[in-house]
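Record type: monomer structure entry
Structure origin: computed from sequence
Chain ID: A
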Amino acid sequence: MLTDLPNILTLSRIAVIPVLVLLVSVGAPWSAFGAALLFTLAGITDYFDGYLARERQLLSDFGRMLDPIADKLLVGATLMALVGFGHLPGLGIYPAIVIMLREILVSGLREYLAGIRVGLPVTKLAKWKTGVQMVALGLLLLGHEGARFMGLSFLPMDTLGATLLWAAALLTLITGWDYLTAGLRHAVPPPPAG
């Protein structure tokens, strides 16, 4: 189970977090590039772990439990590192807060609903949100310094990343509301008829 390739890929997303945070803390052009590259590779594993599990018939309860945890740990640690080391431009802390709060909300809803044996499936819009969020975080990790390291200092990575982070926050609000209303249907009894 733990040694199945999909689970190893999922566990790798957790394992890279300390290295990612360390690279962000260095603040050098090479470390910004390294952090963005590591985050991108970790994000790619999120696609392949599920794909391989389905393709090779290696679906497991452990994998279903661990996958969203790994995703939330990676995104949460990345957001905290970007905020903590001053890599979010302007008012970037606000979309970061929205994203973190939504992750906690959805985790709580899923935990409650699992207790009453109700699933909370991932929507297409939530998948789009995740995609936009991952690109935004990768660009913010790269930033101007990483772009300079790559010889692309003319590209406004910070601005592109911040813009996409705001877009991800908007999608986060929409999908968070969808999940909340779906969860409340199971948590709040309907009013009595008549």
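Annotation 1: The helical segments are 5-15, 17-26, 29-55, 61-84, 93-115, 124-149, 157-187.
Annotation 2: The CA atoms of residues 22 and 35 lie 9 Å apart.
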